[in-house]
Design a protein that fits this description.
heterodimer; A: alpha+beta; Aldehyde Oxidoreductase, domain 4; six-stranded antiparallel sheet; 26% helix; 27% strand; globular; B: alpha+beta; Ubiquitin-like (UB roll); DNA polymerase, domain 1; 2 domains; five-stranded mixed sheet
Chain lengths: 802, 207
Amino acid sequence: MAEGWPKQRQVLGSKVPRLDGAAKATGRARYTYDINRPGMLHGVMVRCPHAHARIKAIDTTATRKTPGFRALTLIGASRDVVITAIDGNKLTCTPAGKKKAPDERISIEVGEGVTLIKNLKVVTLRDIQPGDRVTIEAEQWVIGRELFYAGDEVAAIAADTEEHARDAARALRIDYEVLEHVVSEDEVLKDRKKRTVPAPSNFTEAKGATQGDVEAGFREADAVVEATYGVPVISHQCLEAHGLVAEWTAEGGLTVWASTQATVSTAQQLAARFGLPAAKVNCITHYMGGGFGSKFGPDVQGFAAAELALRAGAPVKIMLDREGEIVAAGNRPSAIGTVKIAGKKDGTITAYAVDCYGTPGYTGGATVNLNLLPYVYSDAIANWKRSHAVVYVNAGAARAMRAPGHPQNCVLTEFAIDDLAARLNIDPVIIRRKNLPPNNPKAPPNSWAARRNTIYNEQIDIALQLSRWKEKWHPPGKGNAQGPLRHGIGMALHTWGGFAAAQPNECYVIIGRDGSIIARTSTQDLGTGQRTVTAVVVAEVLGQNPASIITEIGESRFGLSSGSGGSTTCPSQAPAALRAAQAARDDLFKKVAPKVQADPKDLAIEAGKVVDRKSGRSWTWKEFCARLGMEEARGRGEWSLGIANEPGNENISSGQVGGVQVAEVTVDVETGLVRVQHLVAVQDCGLVVNRLTCESQVAGGVIMGLNYALFEECIRDRATGRQLNADMEFYKLGGLGDMPKITVHLQDMPERGVIGVGEPPVISTAAAVGNAVFNALGVRVPFLPLTPWRVLQALAQGGKVS
Amino acid sequence: MSQPKQTGRDGITRRGFLTGSGLAAATVGTLSSTAPAALDPSSAATPIAFGPAPVRLAFTVNGRPVQVQVEPRVTLLDALRNYLDVTGCKRVCDRGTCGACTVQVDGRAVYACTLLAIEARGKDIRTAENLAQGDTLDAVPAAFVRCDAQQCGFCTPGFVMALRAALDKNPRATVAELEQAVAGNICRCGTYEQMRQAIAQLVRKEG
């Protein structure tokens, strides 16, 4: 069996300050946004101002004459072709590649507004001949292009300064034919045949799911509650905008600095776009200012930056402005669902039916209808049913956002549970405990399936204690009032995977003869503390202080790694670092043992030294490494889901976690203001690698969840189809003063191996807060965010729950 | 990047501006309808116009005298980041609502995105980079590192500068006063819990 995590752990699980903390806190860390290259140009995106339109005409003349203008590219106006004939300035060609029909003929007259690119260089007619593969961009090819939301990309422009780039963008003349749009889900529901998006209609019924006999379940219940709940579209609001700096090298390679959650995939996508070997593209992400699921590739602006850099012969930086960031760089789908839930007095849920819809914007939808089931209780509830529809609107496309589908699902399920508890006149914790998924005795002993019922019950116990639930809970609306303030407490549960990624993740460890240690991996640190995690693991194996490990991360050329999504990075990269450090250690022993007349088998590492267990001799780390002479010791580690699933590896990394959160609130019934006073987060997290950053991540998840609960919502104007709050003034995010006391309890289970924890703690916060508000008022505020207006409206209507 | 023009002594100086000699306007050569006179009442008698052509400006950044030639519409934030390669102040909202670009201007915490570079002429600009001398960290970033009051770190220099300015103004500032000092700063990763710990340490240490 392969060597696992060290039994005696010195560094793992301790509190290690992040290695790049000082660089970040003093502004010395260089993010993509901060990259300034010699001769670099600034690029800006030109976006469609209409929610749905077709380009009628375009005139770039004025733009090209603005001071400092250097290059322009029109989105959707270029084609890769093979030249078949040249007649004067008229080209005939066929589409290159396999995607288009081979008998398609393209004719174009080369003149103003037509750009020819061959072998990654802008060329003239004289430079091409029949048989050449050429990329042609023609202004006329954007005529008729349909644009599907206010913010859809039309062009990218580079100039010598950012001011000049904006001037050039303003000078671009585009005539649009404005088409019918729809930006709110309810308008689509009124007319399901409506078509303002690429799909055949704006309304698409998704696959339903059912288990047991729902109608029978409703009949045998002591109480049935039906209500509609909803969460709005929200924005990732990454503080570092999406963007990329592209620089073509003298050798015909491409170096990009990208704000991305996936250096390797970003490099691969750019290589494919420009027909380069992947090894000729290096994507650098040394520091990254937040992604939350929205940054997995170059995106339109990244490809455009590389394209502009090629045309201008200079590096180009395009970082989205805040409005572009919000309207075009992803959002989280809404979910509005009518839930009918039925239960018995002992808390058993006898039936659960949900009929819901949500919008992913104008296209996509992969993350809209995930798991909209009775959430963590699905395996315990005998009868449930789900129907779901995807509602397309003229807005930017949704992207994965921190726990795709889960916060929405959690709200719908957990709100319904508390409403049912109120109808049954019982503490909702009784329902939660009664309907927890059972342990599966046949599953591997440390797996989630084998222990989930036990884990949840333990977590509920801990959460009840930390929140003093038993003395604080009261039937909804029956708490003590202090003037206009009502007190409430609420709970919610969540689950998430957090397994290793399916794709391979590599780490390399190099020990120099001076004793220095390099840990190298292409993975990126989004703020999760991954750089420090790698150092902690290597330091543990090699008996060093993590601060002494030289970490080189965030460059695609450093090897394979997967995108940081789904909480997969730590459970992929920590084991890869473990394997790499073990291999480097073994290589060190193998190379040095003969020189110290020892058997590698007898050598071992203790804090800061190497010992020979047989002879009792020992060397300081530096002394021992000095014996490498002209050599160095190297180790490579690899990890993936496939490796994690091999027998004997289940304690190195695994997945699926549970968590319980309790929120305590006060609600002012005169102003409608909700203040969260205390938030308890109990989180199962497997083997904790760095306790300091792990706790930070859980608290950070809770805070993002509080924002979901209280503040966040993309507001789109029905008349113009534009987002009214594509900024940070009216798109609200909480500040320090809005935050409650947060109590984080890590449920340490090292025997489960490393599990990713980025997503889980964000999931149940909003549901817990919503339930606490219900507990305070005795009235359900059914839609998030729980703004004063919504609270007062719910109070005025008496919280009609049928 | 666009090459900063850091040479020459014929640009607008603070003294030239204050005395309203008109030399500055003559130097840049172009008159526009913008009214920089409003910037300082003392110059009201002799209105000076800047731009739209680039103007040569001088101020100090982290103790270093610098000159930069930028159009009058360029914010202090963009002058620092795009023309002087001082990138510790971050651009996030670009309209004074998130605090990521907070710098000290003559000691006062200012959103660099809300100040034109020409308004900063002759002033002492401090950015987060000023808070480390070699390996020696200022107390504020040191507390942030110890308490892990940062994740992605993009907002952090802004928070750090806001706290530094508050402590410079009142070394005995209370927890409530320091929380007030960062009330205009937004963090997306959610580091406020750890930030509270950092603030508590700063109050104990510096109070």
